[in-house]
Design goal:
Layout lengths: L10 E4 H10 L4 E5 H7 L4 H9 L6 H17 L2 E6 L9 H14 L3 H4 L4 H13 L7 E4 L4 H10 L5 E4 L3 H4 L5 E4 L5 E5 L16 H8 L12 H15 L6 H13 L10 H17 L1 E4 L4 E4 L19 H5 L18
Helix pairs in contact: 10-11, 10-13, 11-12, 12-13
Length: 343
């Protein structure tokens, strides 16, 4: 999920110990990737089997476990901002592989691996929080597309202080304080760019998508023969050779391509023009993907530019922005949610 191997840039800590340190350092507002949390609490075999066979079902036991976890964070002193995924992006190549893996897992009754969280579960859970009178205490928003881009936007706009997720894409989006929650344990990997173990120190944000492009991400398979260490070495060399050039993507990529041609470990390199188009797409996703600004309910890009109607479908179909943001309509088909029968 996200960019391969970037978890190697993190330190593992236990939640209970580190949370108090975060509070003492002024980190109070946590943006939560809710599809990550919904998956985390679907590892009970009975809950997983139920969700696989009836993905829109209302499961109070399931929601209660998630609520208790969220309340434990609130009781420590954190403010929470829940962020849900929206519609699927047309540039995302990883989704087809995931669907195949889930289908295969379902055939073998491997229910935990087969779970797919659908938008109805967001609606169900928010209804549950409302029934527990927690909807006024916990903010939430549904993204037009990827929750990680929406979380990055909230962080850059100063609306949250850190992100709780397990998606390493947040590093490429430029978020500087991330807690990567491990799916089956109460521990997490912490990432901060000033950590001495990272190679991202002082790297200009314009170069971060190069890392995702080289290693491989949800939008491009990566360059064969390049792992995370080699990716950073290639980018470092590219930075050196372009330091006196204008910060234009085409020039930066040309320098990177020339550097890749010198490496013996890269044996199969596609045509420069083909790879340039793929890189520009990756760069576009990580720098200008669409999000919703909760302060004015407007569709914007990650640079905080308002999106005009003629550009609205650049990343995929978007319905009524304010209704999507508030969880009133399904972001995939733009139809109003209906509360399902409680079980």
């Amino acid at each position: 999920m996200g960019v391969k191997d970037l978890f190697k840039l993190t330190n593992m800590e236990t939640l209970d110990k580190k949370y108090l340190d975060l509070l003492q350092n002024g980190i109070r507002r946590i943006g939560v990737d809710m599809y990550v949390l919904l998956h985390k609490f679907a590892i009970d075999i009975n809950i997983a089997a139920t969700l696989v066979n009836n993905p829109e079902i209302y499961l109070k036991e399931y929601y209660q476990r998630i609520r208790i976890y969220l309340e434990s964070l609130m009781n420590i002193g954190f403010e929470l901002y829940l962020v849900y995924d929206g519609n699927k992006m047309k540039y995302k190549i990883a989704e087809e592989d995931r669907e195949r893996r889930r289908a295969q897992a379902k055939l073998t009754n491997s229910y935990i691996e087969a779970v797919e969280i659908v938008p109805q579960q967001m609606y169900n859970f928010q209804h549950y929080l409302s029934s527990m009178r927690l909807d006024q205490e916990i903010k939430y928003i549904v993204a037009p597309f990827e929750a990680d881009a929406q979380l990055a936007y909230l962080y850059k706009q100063g609306l949250i202080d850190c992100v709780l997720t397990n998606d390493s894409d947040l590093i490429i989006y430029g978020v500087e304080h991330i807690m990567f929650l491990r799916p089956k344990e109460d521990s997490y990997y912490e990432y901060k760019p000033n950590d001495e173990i990272t190679y991202v120190n002082n790297m200009e944000k314009i170069h971060l998508p190069l890392i995702a492009f080289l290693i491989g991400c949800d939008y491009f398979k990566g360059i064969k023969g390049v792992g995370w260490k080699r990716a950073f070495e290639l980018v470092k060399e590219t930075i050196k050779k372009t330091k006196d050039l204008p910060r234009e993507n085409e020039l930066i990529f040309k320098a990177l391509y020339n550097e890749m041609k010198t490496k013996k470990y890269i044996k199969e390199l596609e045509n420069e023009d083909i790879l340039l188009k793929k890189y520009l797409m990756v760069y576009k996703v990580y720098t200008t993907q669409y999000v919703i600004d909760p302060r004015d309910s407007k569709l914007k890009d990650l640079q905080n530019n308002v999106i005009l109607n003629e550009y609205k479908d650049e990343f995929g179909m978007i319905g009524e922005v304010e209704k999507i943001m508030n969880g009133i309509v399904n972001p995939i088909d733009n139809q109003a949610f209906q509360l399902v029968m409680e079980h």
